[in-house]
Amino acid sequence: MHSFLEFEKSVADLEGQVRELRSMDNADNNVDVSEEIARLEGKASQALVDIYKKLTPWQKTQVARHPDRPHFADYVGAIIEDFVPLSGDRKFADDHAVQTGFGRFEGQSIAVIGHEKGHDTKSRLKHNFGMARPEGYRKIVRVLELAERFEIPVLALVDTAGAYPGIGAEERGQAEAIARSTEACLNLKVPLVSVIVGEGGSGGAMAIAAANRVLMLEHSIYSVISPEGAASILWRDSTRAKDAATNMKITAQDILSMGVIDEIIPEPSGGAHRDPVTVFASTSEAISRAFGELSPASGDELRQQRREKFLAIGRNL
């Protein structure tokens, strides 16, 4: 059973009725409610399709943040074989908000980097809700350097509200670490594909999203600041996050129209959390396509393509 968002109340009510009828059917075999169950299931399914056809930017934000949405570990477990995690930045500590390692994708060696939010209270605290500290970005740089040395392509899975803004992180050079990670991505001489699977927040996301191909799940968001942060700055009222989300152009469709990303990966009705297997398959296909397009290019061509891609953003709007 999924947890429902506020705007999914009509679907929740219908699915609740289905559960009640199923329990009635199990308790009394003399009562046949199969037709009514089928009717309600069809009605709930259509209601979900109708709702997700016209999601507002704020509703998409809520879907992108859904607690059951697949995260880094889920994608790696589904599409990467023989994954071996690497820990630590060799300078300070290991940041659990950022996960890195090497494995195989469709039989080929690949380096994987990304944010992990966790699924329950314990794991979310361990992973700091996916908000990386400087040592996380320095770990990323270490893995990127290894990947380039051994000519291994890199996959980045982006899912963070932003880099961690704590005092300790600032003392250890948060801004510099993000800049170094972004620089390492831009200078990489192997293919780099990034996928925004949930939230793509601020420099914390850009630090691993400066890629040759940037893909984005249909109900993910990508923004320079969170809607709450923007509302606090613009109106000094974080409760106006809904207004900020509407005006910031943070949805995949808006971002694609501005040339910031290259492709939208479709999600099932109800979001990625309702059918992870389908999402893993479509994401894997999109990643495979992207690497296939990039594989013929030389290291210098890959770096130049990346440079031209980001220099071109905003020029033709």
**Helix share bin:** 40-55%
The fourth-level CATH homologous superfamily of the largest domain is 2-enoyl-CoA Hydratase, Chain A, domain 1
Tell me the radius of gyration. Answer: 21 Å
Structural class: alpha/beta
Largest sheet: 8 strands, mixed
How many domains? The number is 2
Taken as a percent bin, the fraction of beta residues is 15-25%
Number of helices: 14
CATH topology label of the largest domain:
2-enoyl-CoA Hydratase, Chain A, domain 1
- Tell me, what is the CATH class of the largest domain? Alpha Beta
Poorly predicted ranges (pLDDT <50, ≥5 residues)? none
What string gives the helices and strands in order? HHHHEEEHHEHHEHEEHHHEHH
Task: Assign the CATH architecture of the largest domain.
Answer: Alpha-Beta Complex
Shape: globular
How would you state the average pLDDT, rounded?
Answer: 90
How widely separated are the two ends? 43 Å
